[in-house]
Amino acid sequence: MKISTLVSVAVATVQFGHAAPFSPPGPGGDFGPIEVRGVGHLHDNFLKKRAIDSQNQMTDTNKGLVGGIEAGNVGNRMVNRREIRELAAYAVAGDNIPGRVYDLYILALRRTMTRSPADKNSWWQLAGIHGRPFVPWNNRQPGTRGSALISDPANGAFTGTGYCTHGSTLFPTWHRPYLAYVEEVLWASAALEVRPALAPKAPNGWNQKDWDEERVKWERALEQLRIPYWDWGLDNADLPPQAYARTHKFKYFPARKEKDFPEWENPLYTFKFNPNTYNAGSNFGNDRFRNWFRTLRHPPTEVPGVGDNINECRATLRQNGNNVRQQVHELLLRSLPSDKQANIREPGKINTASDPARWGAFSNRVGNNGASVESIHDGIHVWVGGPYGHMTSVPYSSFDPVFFLHHTNVDRLFAIWQAVNPKSYVTPQQNGGGTYGVPSNQIDDGNSPLEPWLTRAGWRFNSNTVRYTETFGYGYEEVPRHDYTNSPTGLRRFAMEAVHRLYANSVTSSSKRKRDLYTSEENQGLDNSIVNNKYYEWRVDVSTDRAALNGSYSVHFFLGKPDRDYNKWTSQPEFVGDYVVFTHNMEAPPGTDSATINTEITGSVPLTDAMVHSFGQNLTSLNPSDAKPFLIKNLRWRVTDSTGRPVRARNVKGLKVSVSISHTTLATDETPWTQYGEWTFLTDIARRIGKDGGPDKVGIPDLSSTSTTVAPTTTEAPAYNTDLPTLVTLTTSSAEEPTTEAVATEAPTSVAEDVEEIPTPTSADATESTVEASSTVSADDSSPTDD
């Protein structure tokens, strides 16, 4: 079910209030009797009872679903983190417990954001762990018990970054304790909002019986409180309305009656900085962010006083929604690569007997084929932030409240992937630039410390000790480990069915294959494509240098001609999706030769859905015999830098584009999920389309004769802004002569010698035809295609 059917929230138009009715923090900025000492502390002491575990804690009127857990059948279940729109829907529906959970979450965010920046548990410091201001958190210094934290540049630490591990085998695991700690702080903040307000004796205006019931409901809500996630694989990747509504109207509020429920500024919309904090000696950097008093999404310029553009943010996300959903589906259901596929770039270096190829391909964007959880995550960052916003910048992204909704979904996909792949986990990998606590170019593995996170006993967390979400007292609906404690096979099946149900594409979703959902041409194209319950999946594979443009950039893909005006690229019908490079400037750590840092990253963009929508437009099926000529003629790409301006594709260092194919089996009653076949590179397509943006060999229009119109700045942009002027309009363009340079996507010769034969079905008894796999390419083979 689409999230949009669950909840519809209007953006309030009342004036913002500036009151902060919170009880003050305790001495020293801690939580008084509830001190958040480290990951696992509160979970050990307060969240041990992870769910309502006996019926005597609930009244007869509240039987049924309590926080998504069936009353009377709770046992030792984890409390599930919920999708933000689903959780908010309970509040709209007036559900007693989950509705209170959502309002508690808002209360906790507000309290955390108003804490002194000097407090280690303030939003300023929690967000600063990820990147800026590049300082030790919670006084973590070398020599701390169990600590390997390195802060001395002479010994290899990179003090020009935060703690977060990007482009690393540790990417999914580092964020797990980070999110757990933020969840812990928010829980403690919520407890301070509820418990002092709910004294045993009923206050004026309440009878004792009603008051006792009210207190029980809030305690249950507190036990159920976990941070929510934003599932960008649903609802066409649209930004949840809870994240951009300017105000929040409480449905429930501790110790108040409905007529007194307040309406406040929504803490999920933005975080307001304390100017005295980030302008004075805080190492917050000299970027545009020092000139903005709050976090912004898709601001049209980088000048002081500009507002954000939520409409543009949402439009960019929706334009890539199909792309994201297909990527998630394939990421979680892809088959284990064979030796040939796993070693496509470096033959002989991977031993698939221990299953490392699967973890490497899932966990991060370095040296793999296809989309990883990190590469998908990168796109969300940039699409939310736009050219200039906080989410687009690695060191500043975590200050935007949507960051934690986003990363909690990454953790959820990590948990689902673990259920589908129970034998695969963190494998050794050389890191690149390192982090604040990890030296550059070292080999990271399951025992590498996840700085700055310590257990309650003071020992370092590592990937092996954060393997299971139960460690931190939470779970996810798609991974009910409590129901399959002795059956990993059963849990795997449950998770795979959930993935298919949520994210299947136009071909794999049976509900979308009904004839009434397609034109006759589309339906005929599907009929031609599906033979013996199999069809062909198509995708573009991308490899590039993350340092090529000294910041984030995007590669936009099309099935047809890109518009002359690059502002229209992602909204035109021919647009397929973006491959996004999310990175910071590539300054090398002190004492490190930049040439030793591996800056190659990889990802993919699905083509299948876009090709289905092209049926009737010179494409009759997904079979290679029909699809290859279509792609050779129509597949194009363009590149834009961090400001959204075009950069010629051939000038982007390391950029390589190729097409891959997978013979895929549709779901059946016996196996109710898609079974992807191995992915095979089709370099005959790559050499025909070249490397400069497609068969026209243009890359980008000539920008020498352009005029720019900069949008006026505003102190505060409206929540729904549909009238912002176009930022840049091209007035002229010119195409260059076709080039005969070969595509740079060349697979190793050893792979080319083992060409896989792929059947091209034409009927139930289809004969097999050969699709050319990876091979070396000669420039002489690159012939221009008529355009």
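the 2nd protein, sequnce then structure:
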Amino acid sequence: MEDLIQNLGSVKVPKREDKIYKDECVYSFDTPESPEGLYISLSSFHGLGRDHLERYSKKTGQNVFFNIRRTKQAIVDQGGDGPAKKITRLAIGTPGGFVPDEQKFTYEDTYQIIVMPKFAVVDYPNNDLPEHVKNSIIGVLQGESAMKVAEREALAGTWDGEAKVISKHAANLLQLDNGKKIPPSGWKCERCDLTQNLWLNLTDGSILCGRKFYDGTGGNDHAVEHYRTTGHPLAVKLGTITKEGTGDVYSYDEDDMVDDPNLIVHLAHWGINIAHLEKTEKSMVELELDLNQKFGEWVALQEAASKLTPVYGSGYTGLNNLGNSCYLNSVMQTIFVIPDFIQRFVDPALDIFDGNTVDPANDFNVQMAKLGVGLLSGKYSVAPEAEKEDGGRQGVPPRMFKSLIGKGHPGFSSTRQQDAQEFFLHFINILDRHSVHKANPADAFKFKVEERYQCSSSNKVKYSYRPEYLLPLPIPLDAATNLEEVAAYEAEKKDAESSGRRLDTSTPPVRPHIKLSSCLESFARTELVEQFYSTALNEKTTATKKTRLSTTPDYLLLHLKKFNVSEDWTPIKLDVAVEMPDILDISLLRGAGKQVDEELLPESADSVPAPVYNEEIMGQLLEMGFHPEACKRALYFTENKGLEAATNWIMEHIADSDFTDDFVPPGVDPTPSRNFVPGPGLDYLLNLGFTQEQAVRALKATDNNVERAVDWIFSRQGDVEPVEMDEDKSEGFRDGGDRYKLVGFISHMGTSTMVGHYVCHLLKDGRWVIFNDEKVALSENPPKELGYIYMYQRITS
């Protein structure tokens, strides 16, 4: 008690605005359930694992800590206590989703006060404690966890993929008085013989079949065709209506499942009394769950048909799925295979932990180091002891990292599924911002793309270069090696649809098989560029374009462009198998630069006319939800001919890798990225009191945008160091040989990037390992042909 009294002045009572980290160590993945429990500073309220306690105390001078130890014990299943848990969401590790081997536990907490540096122990509860200390501990125990606060703030205003929005048509839906009355049973599509998957249009009472599913089952699209003809927006799926007045309601106009709070009234208009209805059909979510559990990618990619052998230890730690965070898990598992990331964030981790930052949970370098050490140390990947009923703790939950990396992003801050490729690029952008004074480990992925344009009228050429981190590859379906099999399968499926019968779903569909070489050839194919501004002619003409690689990275990421948009504007995924070689030679893609016999086009001058965009059509495209830069492209290349032409152009090019990049007309030199131009912007920042080094760095990082430059500086206060005036952040390209070996791939299962699940396979110690969230096991049949993003490592010998 004497040691506590001597440090009484440092003890604080938490205020409303204080963040209390009582769920997890800010520097590691230790929790109250760890053997030594969690130590919470009664000064800063940072939670600490035992490994960081002494170092933190010495560094900060904080000596009083509240120790929480939590033990859990599995509740013995007595049997007969209820039905097995029903899967209701297409997700893994989230409420209602796939939760394998789920058990129920009871928890018990014990407490102590620890006073450093002597490690003196004071029992708690303790009536002899000073009132100030009691109030501090009560505040910690009763206060809301900082991690829960962060999750709530991140989810504010977002939709987690489960709740449905109320349809804008529900309040004033038009319902025709055409005399129709719907019987309680015996329904059939009015345009074919289907008697299942039927939808009642709430405006005119038509009963029509729904869309067909990707396995050939479902309907014949008659309900959606009816909407296109009539514009009647709402339909309810017959057989899903319950006595409580709920059911699957789809809004064709809003292109989503919606909530109709007036469904009882709308059904009564057609003579339907919900008290007499029973739910007889599966909902759309249940159907998709059934389809995905039945066969195909879910089985193959998770190797569900194999009995996998778990592996433990350093480099074999899984990541818990935090509300559809499997896209993040797969990307970060893959990244921490790269030596550059280990050298930056894992090897010097103790120095990073000693940084004494104000809030380690919001320090990017700290959280990256925490994640890297957590994955590679082996501390959180220990083979379970046979006598432990709960199987021991496996995997770590990247809560703080996810909260930090997703902050301010409407998608990555939510619990919705996201695209792994988009998350990787988002992560690279954040990493770049935090690598101002340090080597950027993302340089291992970075390569320079060369684009060669040749003016069709003058034959003069132009070369432009840009950095990339993934190589997007188109998938040429016409190059499939099994075209006849695919055609036969499609014909059988079409015949089944027209006759109203269903295909045998006990076997998977026939996928087109495509060689990677065909994808590479398609990428390297010469393109015809319309509306090319030739500086030799000072007018528009046509040109040919070749895309090559000017440099090759140490680690080459290939992104297969599997996701596209169908004719009815719904997202689709190409169900294809791409044959990926273990050894890859990309010399076909190597650029040669300017040749001696080539004459360059003159540099574009200030007199180049700026593109003119039809404001009316631009407004209509923006209202449809298209990105502004994509709208500019569409209007430029269709010469403002009209909404239909622009829309068709967008749908044809929506999968282009530069679809939303800043638009620069072909042939016109872009404003150099991150190029500092002395001028009024510099003077303005200097007048605000910033140093010249800060102003120059900020203007370079924001393309001379003064407003963004101010935000850039404020967001990095305390992190801006002197910089050489000629610093060029566009460098960092590596180069070497063109031969690579396959060392990893990320796979997606599901029909679009917004649903489904991601896993990754990595080649470790000469054997393939599957990382399926927290489960890590030896891979028996790595499905190399079904991946989404592939990682190849340069062969150096």
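The chain has a mean pLDDT of 82. DSSP finds 22 helices and 26 strands in the chain.
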